[in-house]
Specification:
With about 270 residues, the protein is of the alpha+beta class. It contains 4 helices and 16 strands.
Length: about 270
């Protein structure tokens, strides 16, 4: 599960090549990824192998027939996603845990793991009725406790401390970042944007800015890198400018929820 720092991008390419070969052998060309989104010919996303770590830890987060987001296993029984993914737009409140399903390894109806949520823990200060702005991204994260533990099957994408100081250190080291999610235009397969750029932080806010190609369905998706020993989670995608072609993405850095995750993990372990 470990790779040197600069090999993350290569690993994605290898996984994609292997997946493509499998698709051809199955005469399943209609599911090969094609750039048919708002990114047009500039779409650089590729199909990631959801059966190979670290992508096994990334799953579809289904919302009782009301669309889907993406979520990541960050501890035993705990996944992280965007808080707006648990908002109930019809009631103005939050969705019930048993309406939320995490499905890891999802690929056109097949999957590795499934569990219903048992608890939801949105960020303190999150308001489901707040207007979507860059400042609202600060609170746009949620920790979800599942009824069953996915980690023995999926592995865990542990958060690395990611803040503005760490960003500059990683940039100096020419760190490669990859975003992966169940994009709305290809929601039946996991797609990834290899070597997507992290651009720093919004001035005065704990909001990480990036150039990863994301559309609805990618909310809650992880932005990951390798620290030379293991894959680590840096941020959780939350929003994107309307002009997605050459636009800007906004994500919640891990520093925003690491203390809450540690506290919740200890509580689960004690029970």
């Amino acid at each position: 599960m470990t790779l040197p720092l600069r090999l993350l991008l290569a690993a994605v390419a290898i996984l994609v090549a292997a997946t493509g070969a499998k698709a051809q052998s199955n005469d399943d060309a209609k599911y090969k990824y094609k750039p048919n989104s708002v990114f047009g010919a500039g779409d650089v996303r590729v199909k990631a192998d959801s059966r190979v770590y670290p992508w096994t830890a990334v799953g579809r987060f289904n919302k009782a027939g009301r669309g889907h987001c993406t979520a990541t296993v960050v501890a035993p029984r705990i996944i992280v996603t965007s808080a707006h993914c648990i908002a109930n737009k019809y009631t103005g409140g939050l969705m019930a845990p048993d309406d939320l399903h995490f499905v890891a390894g999802w690929d056109r109806g097949e999957y590795l793991f499934h569990s219903i949520a048992s608890e939801i823990h949105p960020a303190p200060g999150y308001d489901p009725n707040r207007r979507a702005t860059v400042s609202a991204v600060v609170y746009d994260w949620a920790l979800i406790v599942l009824e069953k533990d996915p980690s023995p099957t999926t592995g865990i994408l542990r958060p690395a401390l990611y803040n503005e100081k760490i960003f500059w250190e990683l940039r100096k080291a020419k760190t490669v970042f990859t975003q992966a999610g169940y994009s709305g235009d290809r929601g039946q397969v996991l797609t990834a944007h290899p070597d997507c750029k992290m651009w720093g932080f919004t001035k005065g806010l704990l909001v990480a800015e990036h150039g990863c190609q994301a559309v609805p369905g990618d909310s809650g998706s992880p932005i990951v890198f390798s620290d030379g020993k293991e894959y680590r989670l840096a941020a959780v995608h939350a929003a994107h400018t309307k002009n997605r072609v050459g636009g800007k993405g906004f994500a919640v850095p891990t520093v925003s929820f690491m203390k809450a995750l540690d506290k919740l993990s200890k509580k689960i372990a004690a029970n």
